[in-house]
Here is the input.
Amino acid sequence: MPAPLIVVNCKTYASASGEALDRLLDTIAGVDSEGVRLVMVVSAYDLHAASSAHPSLEFWSQHLDPVGQGSHTGWLEPETAIQRGARGTVINHAEHKVAATHVEALLHMLDGRIDVCACAADEDEARTLAALSPTMIAVEPPELIGGDVSVTTADPGIVRGTVDLVKSINQDIMVLCGAGVKNGDDVAAALRLGAEGVLLASGVTKASRPAEVLADLIDGARRG
Ligand code: G3P
Here is the structure.
């Protein structure tokens, strides 16, 4: 059984970008995460400094474009992201949607070198993405993102349904859930529903004591 995943998406929160991210990571690096795979999904600006300063933490990119090195101004080119410490990427987040062809081309380009977590708003989108065989699919109902009610409470059926659907297409694809996840009980509930981890943001990035929140999330993952 792989360790349960806790994936913290820093988005563009001021509290989790630039110098504030440095401070957040210093705090987080001190939290005991044994038995859990903790991932920080940071801005492209922060990737290199964060991964250099904290080799014990795992970092992902928030997005990548399927472009090569060359004439591609402003795109997020994968080879440099990997060189700069990305061990995975999110793609097709609700806040940065792309076409299925983008996900397909990116998977082809990466060829399994780093993990790809494709986000799905619902089971229909999860079905489309599962056919492309990403490393994992994170189901996140957009209307619950940033809110105070966890998807595991508001819509446990979408978590269970997505797990069953994705596993029926490809057992090897991991399934995460996210939106409104705030505490250890939410993580434990996600694992009980069959998810292999959670994707969250504001629960950590807006917390006044992020290390305490993270310790509680990790405790929930161990209980789940
Ligand atoms: O990528 C995670 C995210 O969309 C969920 O955000 O703030 O509801 O945990 P949040």
